[in-house]
Structures are given as structure tokens and as C-alpha cells.
TrEMBL record:
It comes from Catellatospora methionotrophica. Keywords: Ribonucleoprotein, Ribosomal protein. This is Large ribosomal subunit protein bL36. GO terms for cellular component: ribonucleoprotein complex; ribosome. The keyword S-adenosyl-L-methionine does not apply. It comes from the Bacteria. InterPro entries: Ribosomal_bL36, Ribosomal_bL36_sp, Ribosomal_L36_bact. GO terms for molecular function: structural constituent of ribosome. Pfam families: Ribosomal_L36.
Amino acid sequence: MKNRSSLRSLKNRPNSIVVRRHGAVFVINKADPRQKTRQS
């Protein structure tokens, strides 16, 4: 999982979901797990 400062380009990809969990923003993409990222 990568730490990114900006998730805007990732949230526009197909099948991606933006989730907030305990103070951090995560992008989860089941179709392409390489794009799993977090922003704290």
C-alpha cells in the first residue's frame, strides 16, 4: 500500500472506492489491488 498526498487521480479510476477509516482516507480498488493507497 502506498501513501499519497493527493488521491484525486485514483478516485476517478474505474471500480475505486474512497473510504475514511480512523482519521485516514483510503482508496480501495478490488479490480486493481495495486492502486490501494492511503492518505493520512
